[in-house]
Structure formats: structure tokens, C-alpha cells
Amino acid sequence: MSKRHIITTIIIAGLLSVALYALDINKKEIEEDEWAFLNEVDESVYEYSEYDDSQEENTETNVVVPAELKALLPGASWSTDTICTVAGVTYLYASDNDLRTYAICTESTLLVEDPSLTYYEADSITPTVIKVMAGEKTLTVDFKNPSDIEKLRTLSSPVLPGWKRCRWDRKADFCDRVMNNIEIDYPKSSISNSEHINEWIATVALAQITGPVRLPSLVSTYLNFEWKDRSGYRGQLNDRYSVANFIADTYFADVEEEFGREDENIPAALYSIISLRARFFNDRYVTYQMFTNDYNGGMHGYYTDQLVSYDCVHHESIGWEYLFKPKTERSVLRQLEMIAEADEKYQLWDADIWDFIRRVDDEGNPTGEILLPMPSLTPDGVLFSFQPYEVSCFAAGCFHFTIPYSRLTTYLTNRAKWCIGL
Fold first, then answer.
1. Which residues of the chain have pLDDT under 70?
2. What separation in angstroms does the CA of 110 have from each of 65, 92, 167, 214, 366?
3. How far is it, in rounded angstroms, from Cα 223 to Cα 226?
4. Last residue within a domain, chosen from 128, 155, 182
5. Most buried pick, 4, 62, 239, 401, via CB within 10 A?
6. Reported pTM
7. What are the strands, taking DSSP E only, across 136-174?
8. Structural domain contains residue 46
9. Within 10 Å of residue 287's Cβ, how many Cβ atoms?
10. Are 105 and 20 contained in the same domain?
11. CB–CB of 288/114 below 8 Å?
């Protein structure tokens, strides 16, 4: 190589080194900027205030929401987004600023409220038409059609007769931006087997703070699934206040262990939300909607949404062994696959339930084992739910599939038929 070539090579190498160093510095600045927003939290959003009945508008967020919605969470501050305006009426998507629940309403009328409520525009051509989802229910609504608007009310989860909806909202004593919100429907003493139901639903709530049981579908490989309280709670399960305080105290202790007690070390507004609403009840079983939502740092939080059922007479959680005869798992899963493949959302997101069901080893090779999703009872059939990431990406959200009882009769146990009333 000539002397000129050597000099040229050295110069080029030097220029490349300078360029790479500059890129590296810029990259670090970008990374720091990306995470800077975590420390820029508007703390006023998370302040509780007493509600003044004489004021129509919420003074903290300067939005108008119906009195019926305000009554659900007294003192809460609200934010709204406009969905559309039809015939002079503006329809809003509202959320309280502690993320405990969501609603679709006008300024004077509440149409639907549910902690899992979401929506999206059906298409860009007709902005008055939206898809609304709450739990396992999905509805197409055209706000130009009064009957569609009225159907929105069917998506709500009202308090069942003879039940009471209890809420506990607490902030950590070391940081106002760390919140724990619990909502549980408890049966009153007039409901048969209320004591056993109270104990069972308390156990379900406690199970949400104990690691792997946090996602029940991920441990339901066991056919005879029972909710287990591994939290170390030693109080009475029928003491609802003690249960709620224990859950909050445990969550705050976890946050303190992770970030410490100094406010500046806590990266953002952190929260843990547990909602257990009684959806279906008769003299044989009760089914709850279980919705959880957590944010403990990172790019986004995580939520789960599914139904859980309980035999009120025999005091048993309802799972696979309760519902289905031995060695019928693959037949039931085949029915589930057919229902899923016909689902519009399942097709849209190119989801695959077998990504969840078929177990693979660390190298991605099938192990031959199957993981069974959690079943629950509804008036229309057995419902199976899959959580974000289980069968598709996070943006796809939860998937819910109901298999009609008529397609499962051959596989149901005698006690399942008794419980369902077949």
C-alpha cells in the first residue's frame, strides 16, 4: 500500500470515529429526553377535592359531566374527549383522572359506564359510527340512530339487586402520586349463601397481589383450579375493610421496596386498580367481571379483563374440572377455535389462540403440553378470555369468546349441567 493510501485510510478512519462519537452522544441525549417526561407529572391531576353540588362544572378539569356520573365517584375530577356531535347533542368519552372508570355520556345524560369501557371509530367515512367494548360485550353504535344510543345502556354493569358496590381509594403516605383503588360488589345478608360468596370474592381480590396468581389464566393448567390467597393475609375474609386495607398496604410496600419513600425517586403516577363487579347471579352460581389495571413504571401499564364464576351452593370455584368431563379438553378447544376464527376482531388482528394454548420450551419447540384458558359462566354459554399479549399484540387488547351451551352439552359434567340448568 502506498504512503498516500495509508494517509487517506487514517483520515477516513478518524472522520468515522468522530461521527460515531457524535451519534453516540446524540443517542444518549435522545434516550434521556425520551424518559424525561416521567418526571414531569402534573400532580394536581391526582388531588381529591370535595364536590360542590351548586356547581355544574368540575373546576379542576373545566368539563361538564352528568350528575349521575359524578355521583358514582364523589369528588372525582374528570376529563372528556368528544366522540361526535349529532343534531346539536355532543357525545363524550369521559374518564375520571384516577382512571377508575370510563363512560360515554352527554353533558346531562349518562349512557354507559364501566372500568373496561373503550371505543374506536368504525371507519373514517362515518364518524358517527363507533365500536364500543365493555368486558366481553361489543356493540356497533350509530349516534344518528336513537335505538343504537339506547342499546349503549346494556353495556353497563349496574349493581345487582341485593348487592352493594364498595370502593376504597387510598394514596401512599409517602407520595400522593401512588394510588390504590379497589371496587368490589358484595352480596347483602338477604342474598342466599352471602357469607360464602363474600369469602370467595375476598380470596379472588387477595389473589391479585400475589405474583403469578395475578393472571389467573396463566396458572389454570391445573384443571381443578381454585383461587388461593398466598398474600399472607391473616384477617377475616368477611371483613371487607381489612381485606381492602391489606391489599393497599401490600401494594404500597411493594412500591416502597422498588423506589423508596423519596418523592423524587418515584418516576411517575403509579397505580393499582382492582374492580370486581357481580354480573350474573341466580340461586346456583354467580359470575363476576374482574378488571385490573396497573402502572408501575415503563412505557405503559398492563390490564386484564375476564369473568370468574362460583358455585354458591357447593362453595366451589368453577373451572375446567368442574365444567368438563375428563379427556374432553381438545374437543372443547376445537369448539373454541371455531368460535374464535369467526370473530371479526380475531381476524383483524391476526390472533392465534394456539400461541397461548400450546406450550413451547426455551428454544420455541412444542412440549406437547397445553395451557387451558379460564372458563366462566354466562347466560349464553361458557366464556373464555385472553389477556393482552396472550394471543396477539398489546394494542389488540383482550379477546373474549363465548361457546353456546348447545355446542358443549356432550362434554359437560352432570354438576355443570345442574349448575347451568340444562
1. 1-62, 210-231
2. 8, 10, 20, 32, 49
3. 9
4. 155
5. 401
6. 0.79
7. 137-142, 163-172
8. no
9. 20
10. no
11. no
